[in-house]
């Protein structure tokens, strides 16, 4: 390993539009994914696509019931480990709260 860098902190209100709909909080969820790129100077070429869709599905499926509709109060951070010859391993860790819309709960009862 040549160096390690922590970069990219972010926050987002929700991964889906809620449009003022009432919801119930199912609890905290967390997930992480990794991917590789090849960097030379300012030019970086991803060797694999960042698996963000898989991360979202992983987090929505973490809830015990597996019935979360959306994620709210998302927070994430990215770190990079740079290896010799320009290879970079990216790690993304995301934390959020899983929610379920109340109208969907009432329809199931």
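-> sequence recovered:
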């Amino acid at each position: 390993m040549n160096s390690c860098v922590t970069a990219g902190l972010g926050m987002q209100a929700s991964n889906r539009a809620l449009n003022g709909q009432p919801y119930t909080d199912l609890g905290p969820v967390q997930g992480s994914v990794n991917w590789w790129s090849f960097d030379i100077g300012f030019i970086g070429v991803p060797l694999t696509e960042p698996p963000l869709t898989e991360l979202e599905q992983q987090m929505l499926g973490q809830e015990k019931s597996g019935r979360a509709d959306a994620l709210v109060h998302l927070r994430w951070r990215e770190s990079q480990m740079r290896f010799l010859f320009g290879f970079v391993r990216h790690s993304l860790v995301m934390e959020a709260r899983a929610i379920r819309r109340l109208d969907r709960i009432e329809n199931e009862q």
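Residues 3-108 form a domain with the Translation Initiation Factor IF3 fold (CATH 3.30.110).
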